[in-house]
Each structure stands twice: as C-alpha cells, then as structure tokens.
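Quick one - inputs below.
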Amino acid sequence: MKRFIALLAIALLPLAASAHGPSPQKVEKSVTIKAEPAKVWALVKDFGNMHKWHPAVASTKLEKKGNDTSRTLTLKDGGTIHEKLRSIDEEGMQLKYEIVEGALPVSDYYSVMTVKPGPAAGETTVTWMGRFYRVYKLNPPIPAGQDDESALNAVNGVYDAGLANLKKVAEGQE
Amino acid sequence: MKPSFLLPLFVLGLTIALPGHAGGYAYITNQGSNDVSVIDLAKNTVIAQVPVGKSPVGVAASSRLGHVFISNVDGQSITVIDTETNRVISETPITGTPVGMVLSPDSKRLYVADWFEDRILELDTSNMALLRQVRVEKAPAGMAVSPNGKNLYVANRDSNDVAIIDVAAFRITSRIPVGNHPFGLTISPDGNWLHVVNVQDNSLTAINLQNDEIFTVAVGEHPYCAAVSPDGRTVYVTNTQDDSVSVIDVLQKKVTSTIKVGGFPEGINYDKAAHRIYVANWFDNSVSVINARNNQLGATIPTGTQSRAFGQFIAEAKH
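Output:
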C-alpha cells in the first residue's frame, strides 16, 4: 500500500508542476553604458551570441524550427538553460524571451531587455526585467532552494553580472 | 478675518469635493508594495496609498457599501477598505489562497476563489463570515456574476473550462469547455455574453449565454483579463507579453484595434462615467488610461509596485 501511495505521488507530480502559484516575482535592473545605443542594441539583440557579453555563459547554441527561435546556453559551471525568443522590436530596441527549462531555480520565467538613449549624448541605458515564479508551486512548507528568495537571488545574480559585463564589453574594456 | 479671505477657501473646498462625485475612484492592488493605490478618476491622480496584507491581487469594489475588498494572496486574508476615509476597516484571515473575487449585484455576498484548494467561498459582506463553500475544478481564477445574481461563473485555469454555479443551491450546474488556461472573465451588463481570456491560446472565448453560441477571437501574447463596454458591443483584453490591449467588436467577431499600453498589463476596467479604460501595468508600476471613444492612450498614472488590479476595481460615484 505504501508503495502504491508513493507511485501515486510520483504520478501526480507532473500535474502539480503544470500549475504555478499566484505570486509572480520581479527583478528589474538598469545600467548606464558609455557607448552609442545602436552599438549596445547590436550586442543585446544578438540572441545566438549571449556568451559574448554575459560572463556566466560559456557558449550559446542557436536553433531555429519553423517560426520559433531558441537558444541553449551552456554555463561556465556546467549547467544549461534552454530559452525561447519571443520577439525582437528593432524600433523600440526591445528583446523578449522566456526560459523553457534550465539550471535557474525559477519557473514560468519571462524577460524583457530594453535599450534606450542614456542620460548624456553617446550614452545608453539598458534595463533588464524578469517575471517568474518560484520552483515550488504549492502552499507552504516550501522545500529549501525552491522558495521565492532562491529564485530572486538567482535572477538578481544573473542580471547584475550580465549588465556589469555588458557595460565593459560595449565600452571596449574587454 | 477680512471677508476676502473666505472666498478662496470656499472655492477650494468646492474643487476638492466636486471631482469625486463626478468620476468615482479606482483601487489598484500593488503586489510588490503590499498596498492599494486609490485613483481619483476625475483627475487621474493617486490620492491615497492604503497599506493592506501581503501580496494583494484581487479586488472587488462596491460603491453601494462604500467598501472595497482586497485579496492578499501571500497574506492569506481579505482586507476591507472604507472608501470614505481610505482606511482599512478589517482584515479577515482565509484558510486558503484567495485570488479572484466578485460581489453579488446587491453587494451582500462576496465570492472568493481559493486558488490552491479549488474552492469558491461565499462570505457575508456585513461581517465577513464564511457562509458556504463549493469545490470547483483546478485553479479557479476570474469570476463573474449574472446581473440577476442567479449564476456565478468561474474560470478554472488548470482544467480549461468555466464552471456555472447556481447561487441559490451553491453547486455547479454545468461546465463550458474553453481554451487553454482561462484566467480573467467578464460578463456583459445585459448578462447575454460571457467573455473568457485563454492565456496559453492567445485568444478570447465569447459565450452567448442565451443561445449557447460560442466564438473565439485571436488576441495578443499571453492575455490575462477582459473588460466590456456598457453597451456590451466592445471587449478589451490585456495582452501581458505584448504590452497592449486588443479591442474586439462582438458583432463583427474580430479585433478592430490594438492599443500599446504599459509593460505587462493585467487588470482592466471600463469607467462608464467618462468612457475610459483603465489598465494596471505590472512591469511599469503604473495605470494606463485609454479613451474609449477613439481608442487612444491618454494619461499614465504612477502607482505602487507590481500593479495587478484583478477584478472590479472601479467604484462608481454615488448619485
């Protein structure tokens, strides 16, 4: 009987995973870069070359199937993240993508990167926003590493490191 | 005091008092700042930030009661705000996870969707006592009540249908299959049409409740909520991942216009008094105002952080 209950619990897992909780989390980060917006936008919109500016990404593999564009990021610590491109808006200099699956402790992750002219001439402001849920989608108690804090810490880390290095690359320091 | 001082004070008093009567107020839940932004619709400015429970999402405003009900998802409670003072009257703990809410037409009952436990709760608005509950399908989200108060409609996000609950018996009488992941829904003022937003299908399902006619219209990416015009002819849908609102003509059964709004628009309501549409933007911490007469974007009003405003968030002015 115990074994049956265990099997039943496993069988029910995918069902539970298809739902997400009602409280999405948000991270929004910005950086000012001393480079022309067009130059920064060229780096940001290059969906298949994220390793050129993100320090945690070792390589990027671009895949196209029909109208869908996706990429697999191989991280320097060995994990991978599979992401799908949602849209590239050339006029608004805005890139939208989502995580299909991967190493980050998040679910239903959706992100927008926006490039705009900066505070002074020849400067650019890049804003990176993410909306996502924690991994554990049911009511407390929440298992360690699957809570809101873990999800927020991971995304904050990705955005901070990424924007700092994007600045260096765009300004020609690296 | 010289008489000349009295006149400006008198005029000032009038200008403060009048706009409220003209336009009513919007109550915008801000999930990130755990508060509610109160917008004076005559001026389109925030006149108060009311602290509520943790992660407020749902809202149900009643000008009849002078109360606004707020569901705090992470706080697992419902906050009641007095619209005269913009102060909190009470906070009632809920066993479960309250998200969607709707009031009966006479405002005597509040229906609350419990997201995780798949139940609908019926509360007495005079004392917030739990009266009845009914189990529905998976992840109940948006709700609407028929104008005669007899039927309650519930979008079940994870079972892809709408449950029709007979309010008198408080049990499900039928279920209508819709698209994938229905979240928000709204009913036309005459009670003839139910409009259901299918998040994963990027579509709106329109259901004629008189003759069971159903049609589907493609909208933008990852749509969430819908509002309907007073004449029932036009439906407005927020497209969260397109940062836009689709305008649907119900007779033509098609999208006639798409309006750019703020980032990640969620809750949407139609203000009958001024024929404007108010949209809460989760990414931008703001509310976008659309002129319904020409479908042009007007004011953008800064609110609290992560604005959601899921439900009936406009309290019309009392007449």
